[in-house]
Design a protein that fits this description.
Length: 283
């Protein structure tokens, strides 16, 4: 995305009405934006400072803005449930996603996490995304291309039971229904100390994943959920909104650790949350 102060040809733009109804599209010279609130010519928008108020041919007011990552992800065409921004933000920080990294995911879905990862790794990094269903992958590819991040993402079509081509990824986000069946494959794809993350809707899935992580020498395992409550932004009547984005999934994180021949490893493994029997068998 362009982060200059003015709108340019090819930029992803957002028009926001007074009731906060918004539209996201790519600016293109010679084209028109059309809605039930009237028509605006792209040529009249290109060159304006972001934040400008503009009017359609019927006089309907809009503000011309750059969409946030949250706006983009919430508006993605989708065939599957996407991750919520409240979860994505925490995932990116907890897994240490940073510019220049090589990050993997499996279960591409509509590409919301793919776009977030590609944004975080910047132009110097890369995202490798595995998906089993061609139609799902094609939609994700189109969504990534629309945002202008295609050069940062490599899509691969495969049943992940067969494993992964990579072996030194900085982080791996696994977004499938049964991540516990693929932990060994993920381990082989991660560098020593690499980050693992997944999101799951139910307790029994989390339980199975925790057992699989410990058996495959992952440590510093954490489970949490993110709850988000909005407030009415009225200084004279500040109170919570009527609806709350509560449970959307359990987040599970861990780090790949290495086996050691030191006899003190069992005690330390217990402190770090590793299966002590598994660690002892490697001594």
């Amino acid at each position: 995305m362009n982060y200059s102060s003015t709108a340019r040809d090819g930029d992803l733009a957002q028009l926001v009405g007074l009731t906060h109804k918004h539209f996201i599209f790519n600016l293109a010279s010679g084209k028109d934006f059309q809605s039930h609130r009237g028509v605006l010519k792209h040529d009249d928008l290109i060159g304006l400072p972001w934040g400008s108020q503009v009017f359609s041919h019927t006089g309907a007011p809009f503000f011309l803005l750059q969409p946030s990552l949250s706006d983009i992800l919430n508006e993605l065409p989708r065939t599957t449930q996407i991750l919520y921004p409240k979860d994505i933000g925490y995932i990116l920080i907890q897994m240490g996603i940073a510019p220049g990294q090589t990050v993997m995911e499996a279960g591409t879905g509509s590409g919301s996490m793919t776009i977030a990862l590609a944004t975080a790794v910047s132009a110097d990094g890369k995202v490798i995304s595995y998906e089993q269903k061609p139609a799902v992958q094609n939609l994700a590819r189109k969504n990534v291309e629309r945002i202008g991040l295609a050069s940062r993402v490599t899509f691969k079509l495969r049943d992940i039971q067969e494993g992964f081509d990579e072996s030194d990824a900085d982080a791996f986000f696994l977004d499938v229904q049964n991540p516990f069946d693929y932990i060994s494959q993920v381990r082989n794809a991660l560098k020593p100390g690499g980050f693992f993350g997944t999101i799951l809707p139910t307790f029994n899935q989390v339980e199975k994943t925790l057992n699989a992580l410990r058996k495959n020498k992952f440590a510093f395992i954490e489970v949490c959920e993110i709850l988000l409550r909005y407030y009415k932004a009225d200084a004279s009547r500040l109170r919570p909104t009527d609806r709350m984005v509560a449970h959307t999934g359990f987040l599970v994180f861990g780090r790949k650790i290495e086996a050691t021949l030191d006899p003190r490893a069992v005690e330390l493994a217990n402190e770090a949350g590793v299966d002590s029997d598994q660690e002892a068998s490697s001594v």
